[in-house]
Amino acid sequence: MAPDYKEIMQKLQARSRKRRDKLAEVFGVSSGRRIGVVLNTQMEVVARRKMNEVRSERSSRKRSRGAEDEEGNDQKLYIGSEIFLKGTQSANPHNDYQQHFVDTGNRPQNYIRDTGIQERFEEYPKLKELIRLKDQQIAEFATPPQYLPGDLHTLELRSTLRTDFDIIYIDPPLEEYERRAPGVYTNKTWNWQEVSTLKIDEIAGNPSFVFLWCGSAEGLDEGRECLRRWGFRRCEDICWIKTNKDKPGNTSYLEPKALFQHTKEHCLMGIKGTVRRSTDGHIIHANIDIDIIIDEERPYGSTEKPEEIFKIMERFCLGRRRLHLFGSDANLRAGWVTVGPEISASNYNSEQYLSAFKESRLLPQRQDIENLRPKSPKAWGSRGRGGSRTAAGSRGAGGSRGSSSAPRGGASMRGSSGSRGGSGMGGRGGPSMGGRGGSGMGGRGVPSMGGRGGPGMGSRGGMGGRGGPGMGSRSGPSMGGRGGSGGRGGPGMGSWLRGVR
């Protein structure tokens, strides 16, 4: 039998009211609703009284002892925990925000300073100017708001919208929202199986980004599975930390399997395609915003999200084709196409919408923004395929260690034919014509067919070894070198000390 969440909440609320009423009796106030104000005031009064007592005692000690070394040693004294109902082990109860939450209902995040976008960069003028320029450019190139009503269970996204998008923002009506506010949240909910059936892969460009709200319970796992099914890989997790300055108290709903009170919500970010921060500055501007939003919790039963999530998406991706699924009339926005069952009218025209992107689907690059935005350092080289640390080859590719004329594999470097370098085509162990010594005429001084790596299959061994399959090697004439046709110790035709004479 499923638990009666409404009855459980009523019991918890009754217990909380009883506790606050007891606190009201202790401090002599008429109502438990004013406990937060009284506690803060009472703390200041008691602290001031204790400070005066300690200062008076220290002054008398100075006069009696004549000790000058205590002068200027009047530091702020933090009082004990007698004003707390349950007490605290903190050395500084003024900063014990968890205990303060227990006593007053004010969450610790309520006291984080400068959380608004206007105050956040007051001490960072360059970032503040960057944000201003970015927002100005986004507004300048934004398309008029486009909106389209539709049941996303049956709406064919590709044939209806007739384009793909750079940003796809999904805010589904989750079952978790109904559990939070039973009887208040009346929208038709979606389970995660239904969310996963959305054909996001058909309308996602390459590259593109998806932002998916997943709540704070089972959606953390199910949301990741949806991203994988749609062809995205999760790259970030944006967390909305909810304050309750307007309405202190315990959370209105406790998840059945939760160990803590949930005061946050998650938005998963996925990426499709390959985008590099250091080289793809024409597509993304990374490191401008953070992955945390601190904003007031919405009223009971509301699923509205902070506006800052739109700012984060718009400033990050320079793509101008943006789609919002499960939107409503309340969050229509310039630069976005909004689709959802709660939209009351339609103005979407695919031809008119696509005409705005004939010149470019991206925001143009501006030098003043490029000068201000944080940049990732460029990689000094990769060891992967097709490239090298500096030029045309790499350790594992078909080129040399540096370029086509680099040492240890380049033509006529470190000696020409008949030397350690040889005239080899390949790098140190690449799958081309030669290994460390290339396919020169000689090895380490012996006129054989292979150098140190030989013209063979890949690594240090190649077809020929250190002595090569030629006229002789360090240990006499043999058919094979150090590693034969395999690697340095592979199954070759001979070895350094033993061969077919």
Please describe what this structure looks like.
This protein is of the alpha/beta class and 501 residues long. 25% of the residues lie in helices and 11% in strands. 30% of the residues are buried.
Please give the structural blueprint.
Blueprint: H1 5-27, H2 35-65, H3 97-104, H4 125-140, E1 146-149, H5 157-161, E2 165-170, H6 175-180, H7 192-196, E3 204-215, H8 219-229, E4 233-243, E5 264-272, E6 292-296, H9 308-316, E7 322-325, E8 336-340, H10 350-354, H11 367-372
Parallel strand pairs: 1-8, 2-3, 2-7, 4-6, 7-8
Antiparallel strand pairs: 3-5, 4-5
**Average pLDDT reading:** 74
Distance between the termini: 86 Å
Given helix and strand content, the structural type is alpha/beta
Rg, nearest Å: 35 Å
Helical proportion?
Answer: 10-25%
Task: Give me the count of strands.
Answer: 8
What is the number of helices? 11
The largest β sheet comes out as: 8 strands, mixed
| Approximate strand percentage | 5-15%
Low-confidence stretches: 70-88, 382-501
Give the SSE order as H and E letters. HHHHEHEHHEHEEEHEEHH
Strand order of the largest sheet: 1-8-7-2-3-5-4-6
Q: Give the CA-based shape.
A: globular
